[in-house]
Amino acid sequence: DSGVTQTPKHLITATGQRVTLRCSPRSGDLSVYWYQQSLDQGLQFLIQYYNGEERAKGNILERFSAQQFPDLHSELNLSSLELGDSALYFCASSPRGPTNEKLFFGSGTQLSVL
Amino acid sequence: GNSVTQMEGPVTLSEEAFLTINCTYTATGYPSLFWYVQYPGEGLQLLLKATKADDKGSNKGFEATYRKETTSFHLEKGSVQVSDSAVYFCALRGSGGSYIPTFGRGTSLIVHP
């Protein structure tokens, strides 16, 4: 158990809908990262938050947004969903931002857009 | 920018065979290098890491050596087990500028009894 909790584990929805994925980092970890894993793109970095502030953006679509709350949990919001958004979304946490430390991953949310 | 290239899978081996999964990287400065493993239905977990040139990371019989001259970090294991069947990801984390972890596409390993 990595200590990172993601909910829900599975999500099935329709095109055009909006969903929210939730992540609770390990106790004490300030950094949260969101990654999207798909068969054709591999593991793609979406966005990072550090202690409530956005720190870095990767290949995140404008239809997607995220935030980190004062209790350090994070939510990833996906709107106007398309079939191609179907993927496994991972959250990871680490103790600090700009270090060489490892990431601790949650078990992911499997999103299926029908 | 930073990038990681891994050999494509799946890699299919018999139990007790020797394993090599190739990984090369492109990065500025002196990145840290990692191998993560993803078992079915689970998130990625760190397998081993190396933070400077010529360092060897090792764990659970797996090894990888940070080769700056060839920009490589190949994963090896002398004798694989069925339980090693998983997807293996090579990753780097930059030392300055972009410190966001960059992952390879992953290599699936299937070990048959």
Polypeptide structure, described:
Chain A is mainly beta and 114 residues long. Chain A has no helices and eleven strands. In chain A, strands 2, 4, 5, 6, 9, 10 and 11 form a seven-stranded mixed beta sheet that branches. A four-stranded antiparallel beta sheet of chain A has the order 1-3-8-7, with no helix packed on it. In chain A, a hairpin with a 5-residue loop joins strand 7 and strand 8. Chain A is globular. Chain A starts with a strand and ends with a strand. In chain B, strands 2, 5, 6, 10, 11 and 12 form a six-stranded mixed beta sheet that branches. In chain B, strands 3-9-8-7 form a four-stranded antiparallel beta sheet, with no helix packed on it. In chain B, a hairpin with an 8-residue loop joins strand 10 and strand 11. The chains are: A mainly beta (114), B mainly beta (113). Chains A and B meet through strand 5 of A and strand 5, strand 6 and strand 11 of B.
List keywords for this structure.
heterodimer; A: 114 residues; mainly beta; 7-stranded mixed β-sheet; 4-stranded antiparallel β-sheet; 53% strand; globular; B: mainly beta; 12 strands
* Radius of gyration of chain A, CA atoms, in whole angstroms: 13 Å
Oligomer: heterodimer
How many individual β-strands of chain B? 12
The secondary-structure class of chain A comes to mainly beta
- Which residue ranges of chain A are poorly predicted, with pLDDT under 50 across at least 5 consecutive positions? none
> Helix-strand pattern of chain B, N to C?
EEEEEEEEEEEE
TL;DR of this structure?
Chain A has 114 residues and is mainly β. Helices cover 0% and strands 53% of the residues of chain A.
Write the layout of secondary structure elements.
The complex is a heterodimer of chains A (114) and B (113).
Chain A (H helix, E strand, L loop, with lengths): L4 E3 L2 E4 L5 E6 L6 E8 L3 E9 L2 E5 L6 E5 L5 E5 L8 E8 L9 E2 L3 E5 L1
Chain B lengths: L2 E4 L4 E4 L4 E3 L1 E4 L5 E7 L5 E7 L5 E4 L2 E4 L9 E3 L8 E8 L8 E2 L3 E6 L1
Parallel strand pairs in B: 2-12
Antiparallel strand pairs in B: 1-4, 3-9, 5-6, 5-10, 7-8, 8-9, 10-11, 10-12
